[in-house]
Structures are given as C-alpha cells and as structure tokens.
Description:
Helix content of chain A: under 10%
Radius of gyration of chain B: 14 Å
Number of strands of chain A: 12
Order of helices and strands of chain B: EEEEEEEEEEE
Number of helices of chain B: 0
Order of helices and strands of chain A: EEEEEEEEEEEE
Oligomer: heterodimer
Number of helices of chain A: 0
Largest sheet of chain A: 6 strands, mixed
Largest sheet of chain B: 7 strands, mixed
Largest interface: A-B, 19 and 22 residues
Shape of chain B: globular
Structural class of chain B: mainly beta
Structural class of chain A: mainly beta
Strand content of chain A: over 45%
Number of strands of chain B: 11
Amino acid sequence: GDSVTQMEGPVTLSEEAFLTINCTYTATGYPSLFWYVQYPGEGLQLLLKATKADDKGSNKGFEATYRKETTSFHLEKGSVQVSDSAVYFCALSDRGNDYKLSFGAGTTVTVRA
Amino acid sequence: DARVTQTPRHKVTEMGQEVTMRCQPILGHNTVFWYRQTMMQGLELLAYFRNRAPLDDSGMPKDRFSAEMPDATLATLKIQPSEPRDSAVYFCASGLAAGTGARYEQFFGPGTRLTVL
C-alpha cells in the first residue's frame, strides 16, 4: 500500500537559516506528491505539489522536487522566517487509491528570532 | 474566497454525550472527507463521500461513529456515546473529482477541536 515517511522533528532553527525536511514515499502507482502546512490552531493548507517525475513545486520560498529514482520529495527553504513556524506534512495521492491522501507523521518546525 | 467551513470550532463535552460536528464543503465539490488528528496517531481518514454516497468508512469505529451527507452542502459526523479517547481535532476536507481516475485536490476546513471529559 501507499505510505509516506518524513523526517521526525521537532526542528528548531534560527531566522534566515536553511530548512530541509526529508520525505520518502512508497506507492503502487504513479502518485502525486504534496506538502501541506498547518499553522497553530488552523487546518491544513496546501503548500506545494508535484504531479510527475522531475516536477518542482514551489510556493512562498519553499521548493520540493519529485524524484522518482529515489522516491523522494524533500522540502527546502533557503531562509526561514519566524512566520514559517508550523507543522509540515508530506502526502501522496494515487489513482489506485482514488486519490485519497496518505500523510506522513508531520514535522514540527520552530523558527527563533 | 471559497472555503470549507466547520462547526463548532471547539466542543467540550462529558463522556456518554452525543456530539455532532458539521461541515460545509466548497460549493460544487463532490467529494467530502472526514479526518481525525491526534498526537499519537497523526492524521487518520475516517470516512469519505462522493456525490453524497459513502465510499469508504473503514477508518471509523462503527459502533459509535456515524457520518452522513443529508445534502450536498452539509456533511455531519456524529459520535454517540462519546468517550475520552475520542478527544482529537476533526477535519473535514472537500474536493472535486471530475471523472473516473481524474486527479483532484483536497481543501481542508479549520477543524473541530473535541474534548471529552
């Protein structure tokens, strides 16, 4: 079945530091890949996505590249801000599973001023 | 700005009481999901509907949980009787599946934080 494994947190960084959150996946088909972000007290928001190999999703300074050969979709941001403090979820959806989302466990990121 | 709305946002109740959570999907979306989020289990899919018909509720404890879509603008999740272990944040999400095998995205509501004492 489909599964997502992401880097365990929590991660604590200083402002302007480089952020990487690792995500790898297992899927029977050819999945779409997502990063969702959850700010304190809020629901999940789609941060970025990629639907085919070598696609790069980007939004708000975050990037992630769909790597089929390594089954990975690592999230990166070159210079984090305090406002990036949140929980980040890697997820996939697959046609064989009617595009239901399979989530990773989430990584809590705290950025200090 | 179309959004998924959920009510109530917070609910505190006592063990044994009935709890009903409501969700209004984005207008025009035909697929609705219910998720539960806890620290221990993370995000779990409880049930989902397409065109108001339940497609999968295997993630839901059948003896106390029920999910329905009385109409296209309302989805409900009911717990009766509630137990302390049901304390969690419950999210609703909606999406538009345009055809068999077509990709679609899910849009999440703000959640209902349930505390059962």
